[in-house]
Amino acid sequence: MAANRIRVAKDKAELVKELVASKDTTGPFQTYVEVMVFAAALGVKHKKRVPLEVTAKDLSPLRQDYFSNSFALLINLLAITETEDIKILSDADIADEQRIHIFEEYANGGLEILQNELRGAVDYSERLLLILSSERFQDYAEVEEFDLSKFLS
């Protein structure tokens, strides 16, 4: 049986292409795989899982073997976290399809976030740095400060 492939939603294909550096673009990523992994991480961070309705015809699905061991580990960890079932790591084709399906949906959710955040941007690299920077400061803001005033009375 042919290896499962990671697909991109039709409405996000152009964005994925623009995010990859080429002779025509100055995208911040070197490969489509990097874009998809970043988008999936963003989707997970924002708990945004969006089903793929129509897949891109002009962007070939990415073969699983393009994903290095560390990226494959991310896909597996994401699947375990989502299903809370270790059996999702089995070699069965159906488990493989489930892992890919979960990854695709989180990547699609992350691409949707990027689509909104990058709308109108000329320099994607600069805008991505601003997004990452704001995410970092939001994490610090969520940490509850220790209130010493309760000891003053």
Query: H/E element string?
Result: EHHEHHH
Mean of residue pLDDT values: 84
Tally of helical segments? 5
Largest sheet: 2 strands, antiparallel
Number of strands: 2
Explain the overall architecture.
This protein has helices spanning about 15-20, 30-45, 70-85, 95-120, 125-140; strands spanning about 5, 60-65. It is built from 5 helices and 2 strands. The chain has one domain. The mean pLDDT is about 85. The termini are far apart. With about 150 residues, it is mainly α.
Which features does this protein show?
two-stranded antiparallel ribbon; 53% helix; 5 helices; single chain; 153 residues
Q: TL;DR of this structure?
A:
Helices cover 53% and strands 3% of the residues. The protein has 153 residues and is an all-alpha fold.
Secondary-structure blueprint:
Elements (H helix, E strand, L loop, with lengths): L4 E2 L6 H7 L12 H14 L16 E2 L5 H15 L9 H26 L5 H19 L11
Antiparallel strand pairs: 1-2
Helix pairs in contact: 2-4, 3-4
